[in-house]
Design brief:
Length: about 140
């Protein structure tokens, strides 16, 4: 924003957090699958940008594949509720963090750059515990 105060110009610079904007993208989806964003329910379709705090919800025949900005890939199976709780990927500033949660269902994760550079900053939270990720591929299954 620019204001004229007297004969001088005043400029207000607004800092935008590094994490602002998409944290990832849906690559494929099938069956009953949606993204919950605040109070909105969006169809999970290929190309949809994902934001921090989005939740992926699938029905009995649903599945979603997504890729995060650090090249972490997540596959969400049927009857699953999975949240993208925290994501920060600014390796040049040494700011990296990935926290997902699985309330029910199954999710497969293949680690990306964050897990390779800072494995202690990646975790998956379930109702019975937290999984620390140390760079690999694994499946989390949470029964209802």
């Amino acid at each position: 924003m620019v204001w004229r105060i007297g004969g001088a110009l005043a400029v207000l610079l607004v800092a935008v957090p590094a994490w602002a904007g998409p944290v990832g993208t849906i690559k494929n989806a099938s069956g009953d699958a949606s993204v919950l964003r605040g109070q909105q329910k969006l169809a999970a379709i290929p190309g949809l940008d994902l934001e921090q705090s989005d939740s992926i919800v699938t029905g009995a025949d649903g599945a979603v594949g997504l890729t995060l900005r650090d090249n972490t890939t997540l596959s969400v199976g049927p009857k699953t509720t999975m949240g993208l709780d925290e994501f920060d990927f600014e390796p040049a500033s040494d700011r990296m963090k990935l926290v997902t949660s699985v309330a029910r269902g199954t999710m497969m994760m293949t680690s990306g750059t964050i897990a390779k550079l800072a494995p202690e900053k990646v975790s998956v939270v379930t109702k019975s515990g937290t999984v620390g990720v140390r760079g690999t591929r694994f499946v989390v299954s949470v029964e209802e």
